[in-house]
Write a structure and sequence with these properties.
CATH superfamily: Winged helix-like DNA-binding domain superfamily/Winged helix DNA-binding domain
Domain HTH hxlR-type: 20-119
Keywords: DNA-binding, Transcription, Transcription regulation
Number of helices: 6
Organism: Actinocorallia aurantiaca
Pfam families: HxlR
CATH topology: Arc Repressor Mutant, subunit A
Protein name: Helix-turn-helix domain-containing protein
CATH architecture: Orthogonal Bundle
CATH class: Mainly Alpha
Number of domains: 1
Strand order of the largest sheet: 1-4
Radius of gyration: 20 Å
Distance between the termini: 37 Å
Length: 163
């Protein structure tokens, strides 16, 4: 089964997914190293050398991804200086980066189910209660929505971006 395509979208042969938000998102976070840097930022990693070391990439790749994610607005640089050292930048997660957390946790949850025999190496819990945290589709009223219940329609308020 699939989502229910509504109105003019029902004829998949008559339209193309131009201006797709998924394409725009993947241009920013569509690489392994970008997602792993975000994972590390969620875990509290802030320093350049720690990002490179923890995700197992070269410093060149870490620098490229940190610059890319900072320019895109998911991370923000802030200066720090260790005693006796020179001023350097560390990286913190921004609101935009925080808003991506459900997508990243959703990928982890999917990987746990299909590649870890549904026994995850790490548990994501609400810190205060210890209750498990899961990502799922819910309507505004709180109803869980399955793929077959999902409708896709044109947004009458959307306008193509100006060039």
């Amino acid at each position: 089964m699939s989502a229910v395509m509504e109105g003019p979208l029902a004829d998949l042969g008559s339209w193309k997914p131009d201006h797709c938000s998924l394409v725009k998102a993947l241009e920013i976070v569509g690489t392994r190293s970008a997602l792993l840097i975000l994972r590390e930022a969620y875990y509290g990693t802030t320093r350049f050398s720690a990002f490179a070391r923890r995700i197992g990439v070269t410093e060149r790749i870490a620098a490229q991804q940190l610059r890319h994610l900072t320019e895109a607005g998911l991370l923000a640089k802030r200066p720090y200086r260790d005693e006796g050292g020179r001023t350097r930048d560390e990286y913190g997660i921004t609101e935009m980066g925080r808003d991506l957390l459900p997508a990243v946790l959703g990928l982890m949850q999917w990987g746990d189910k299909y590649f870890q025999d549904d026994t995850p190496p790490l548990l994501y819990v609400e810190h205060e209660t210890g209750e498990a945290v899961t990502v799922e589709l819910r309507s505004d009223s709180g109803h869980r929505v399955e793929l077959e219940e999902l409708g896709v329609r044109l947004n009458p308020d959307w306008r193509p971006p100006r060039d």
